[in-house]
Design brief:
Helix 4 (about 100-110) links the parallel strand 5 (about 95-100) and strand 6. This protein is about 40% helix and about 20% strand. It is globular. Strands 1-2-4-3-5-6-7-8 form an 8-stranded mixed sheet, with helices on both faces. About 45% of the residues are buried. It has a single domain (about 1-130, about 185-250), classed as Rossmann fold, CATH 3.40.50. By secondary structure, the protein is an alpha/beta fold. It holds the Pfam family Abhydrolase_1. This is Alpha/beta hydrolase. InterPro entries: AB_hydrolase_1, AB_hydrolase_fold, AB_hydrolase_sf. GO terms for molecular function: hydrolase activity. Keywords: Hydrolase.
């Protein structure tokens, strides 16, 4: 596992660089997740076999440090990913982000569009207000969530997500959720729509109908639906998601 000290986060960030050919696919995970936990199965799928893959654990998650004095905002997390790629000497890459990671990927692509060969986001947060999950978190104060709410959330979780959630710092979860609820101006949707790099939106078939998917299709942005999957598509149907990413990252 690779490591660097992030100037932005003031802490160590760690990532896997899985060997392979060509420009790498950079994977960015969602809230309460970790790329080292969520994406090895996806990156090793036959559809992506032989492709180099970079799996970054964002600050607060997985194997990366969990500083208490970092804000965990979407914009600063995008800066951290940019730091990692610069430190690692990666100047051209395909970019995939899921959920909160999709919003981070959009901001990164906006800053480094010339370096992004193609961008794929799956069910990202496009608008202020967050999703139902984020809103429930920030209904509590940070102190209440750290002291009680996070433990209750982990104890109640029964899905595969519990494995990485319990290794995420509770203050990172709360501050990330707050950033999603607060949103940005222009919105992540507006930034995504204006990007000049090749881009695509991925949704789980069980998440349809979806207003953002309809907007993307109307705007001429390629839309891909993952069969037999909802929001957690990397666990629910990793082979179909891998095939979709292989298509997007070949056709651009």
């Amino acid at each position: 596992m690779n490591v660097m000290i992030s100037r932005v986060a003031g802490a160590a960030v760690r990532w896997h660089d899985l060997p392979g050919d060509g420009d790498p696919i950079v994977f960015i995970h969602g809230l309460g997740c970790a790329s080292s936990y969520e994406y090895p199965r996806l990156a090793s799928d036959p559809a992506l076999s032989g492709r180099r893959a970079i799996l970054i654990d964002l600050p607060g998650s997985g194997f990366s440090d969990k500083p208490a004095d970092y804000d965990y905002s979407i914009s600063h997390q995008a800066e951290v990913v940019a730091e990692v790629l610069t430190h690692h000497g990666v100047s051209r890459y395909f970019l995939y982000g899921h959920s909160m990671g999709g919003s981070i990927a959009i901001e990164l692509a906006e800053r480094a569009c010339a370096q992004v060969l193609a961008l794929a986001v799956s069910e990202p947060n496009f608008h202020a207000g967050g999703g139902e999950f984020s809103r429930r978190i920030v209904e509590q104060t940070e102190r209440a969530f750290v002291d009680r709410g996070f433990r209750q959330m982990v104890e109640a979780e029964t899905s595969a997500w519990k494995g990485c959630l319990q290794n995420t710092a509770p203050w990172a979860v709360w501050r990330g959720a707050r950033s999603l609820v607060e949103g940005v101006t222009p919105s992540w949707w507006a930034r995504f729509a204006q990007l000049s790099c090749p881009k695509a939106l991925i949704v789980g078939e069980r998440s349809l109908p979806d207003a953002d998917a309809q907007k993307a299709a109307a705007a001429g942005i390629p839309l891909h639906a993952i069969a037999d999957a909802g929001h957690s598509m990397s666990w629910e149907n990793p082979s179909a998601l891998a095939e979709t990413l292989a298509h997007i990252f070949t056709s651009g």
